[in-house]
Amino acid sequence: MEFETISVVGLGYIGLPTAAAFAARRKKVIGVDVNQHAVDTINRGEIHIVEPELDMLVQAAVAQGNLQAFTRPQPADAFLIAVPTPFTDGHKPDLSYIEAASRAIAPVLKKGDLVVLESTSPVGATEQMAAWMAEMRPDLSFPQNAGEASDIRVAHCPERVLPGHVIRELVENDRVIGGMTRRCGEVARELYQIFVRGECILTTARTAEMCKLTENASRDVGIAFANELSLICDRLDINVWELIRLANRHPRVNILQPGPGVGGHCIAVDPWFIVDSAPEEARLIRTARIVNDSKPHWVVERVERAAKRFKEPVIACLGLAFKADIDDLRESPALEIATELASNYPGSVLAVEPNIRELPRHLADKVELCTLNDALLRADVIVVLVDHVPFKNIDPIRLQAKVVIDTRGMLARG
Ligand code: SAJ
User: Fold this and answer.
1) DSSP letter at 161?
2) In what residue span(s) does the UDP-glucose/GDP-mannose dehydrogenase C-terminal domain sit (predicted)?
3) Any residues with CB less than 8 A from the CB of 30 and at least 6 apart, and which?
């Protein structure tokens, strides 16, 4: 199978690096996104998100004519769908972006094309995506009614890259490829082998869907254990960071790190897809979500207790992103904590977030975005919420007269 033109639908944190990776292998890549601003930015050779090394890759791809972005789908030999899969209020997966993307590409599909769903999805989503396309294109056959002989190949290949290390992990990580049929999987493997140096392992679409959810749920359960330990240690007056360091000296123990909660669009979301599919069985996975989701409120209570010492406390939140050295505020516990503090202490909350230039609209008139130096000069209470590199070199002398609540154990780890 020759893939001359590859289309990536959804040019966000996963789609754009993937598009750039194909373009770097001299494939003609058509990027598609409904966001006009993203499309215009990419076509200028620039990027609209923060991810190390991505800017250079996109600039080169656009300059060499290998990557072009559009707001509407164009014909291609392979389509990768990398759109968001959020959940609704009741923690139910929302597949509307996948539905919109698959219905949008359906009119440009031709016999022999491959469609790969990359978005993290509940079990059954790939079959559902194929059904949406089949509904739009009765003139073409799809795997669910034509099996190995289908006109269109459909597969699921979940992305597994770690934000902040996307460019390296995209190439090096193994990929799990779930074809709706064996042949669909084989064709999808040929596509990924264009730039993936890790192993591409074939399975069914349903197993691939569950595999991705399992990876993130496993991490969520591990972090919940660490977060629960941090609460227990606080009650028992034990330094949780030292405790974990010591326990991890055991050859078969590897405890993760507590924090202000779990954020990002992946780990805080994906386990709910498992809970939704098997609510009676997924007891531990649900509890882990509840433990991690309750941690930001616990942090707010700690800050409130500390602030009582001051008549008019000034509180500085160090970091708003969901983890270190990125600009992503999605599902960020740090942002949640800052928001709650801002409504409890109007006019007295500062935020230091070196990776963004302006605050999200809901915080703009409630919180003051300032420099680290400013925060260290003005605040009575310092709440470390993200372990961004610039925070690591804070001179302990500057913290002496302040109350420090360090949710990342960054200043206390020693
Ligand atoms: N966190 C802790 N303690 C830890 C590790 C993480 O509190 O010991 C917190 C982080 O601060 C952050 C959240 O968990 O708020 C998630 O961060 P992360 O670095 O663990 O993961 P993500 O969300 O950036 O990326 C994850 C990765 N999945 C796994 O490691 C199993 C990545 O490989 C996936 O591709 C990504 O989700 C995704 O897109 O699903």
Assistant:
1) P
2) 316-413
3) 5, 6, 7, 8, 68, 69, 70, 74, 76
**Token pair 């008139």 in the structure block, residue:** 365
162 lines ligand 1 (CB under 6 A): yes
Share of the chain above pLDDT 90, in %: 92
Locate 139 and state its tokens.
């003139």
Distance CA 295, CA 83 (A): 29
Question: Which positions are annotated as active-site residues?
Answer: 212, 266
| Mean pLDDT, residues 335-353 taken together | 96
pLDDT in tens, 96-150: 999 999 999 999 999 999 999 999 999 999 999 999 999 999 999 999 989 999 9
* Ligand 1 site-directed mutation target among 173, 174, 323, most atoms within 8 Å of CB: 323
339 touches ligand 1 (CB under 6 Å): no
> What pTM, to 2 d.p., does this model score?
0.94
Residue nearest to atom 3 of ligand 1 (CA): 257
Residue with tokens 């270190």: 324
The Cα–Cα gap between 169 and 54 comes to 12
**Which of 31, 122, 48 lies closest to 85 in space, CA to CA?**
122
**Domains of the chain in sequence order:** 5-198 (3.40.50.720), 258-406 (3.40.50.720)
Q: Using the predicted structure, report yes or no on whether residue 406 has a pLDDT greater than 50.
A: yes
Greatest CA separation found in the chain? Answer: 74
Distance CA 81, CA 125 (A): 12
Q: How far apart are CA 183 and CA 144, in angstroms?
A: 13
Instruction: Give the per-residue pLDDT at 62.
Output: 98
């055991």: which residue's tokens? 250
The best mutation among 223, 245, 253, 320 to test binding of ligand 1, ranked by most ligand atoms within 8 Å of the C-beta, falls on 223
Q: Would you tell me the crossing angle of helices 205-236 and 270-277 to the nearest 10 degrees?
A: 110
Q: Is the pLDDT of residue 238 over 70?
A: yes
- The alpha carbon of 191 and the centre of ligand 1 are apart by a number of angstroms equal to 27
Q: What are phi and psi of 20, to 5 degrees?
A: -65, -35
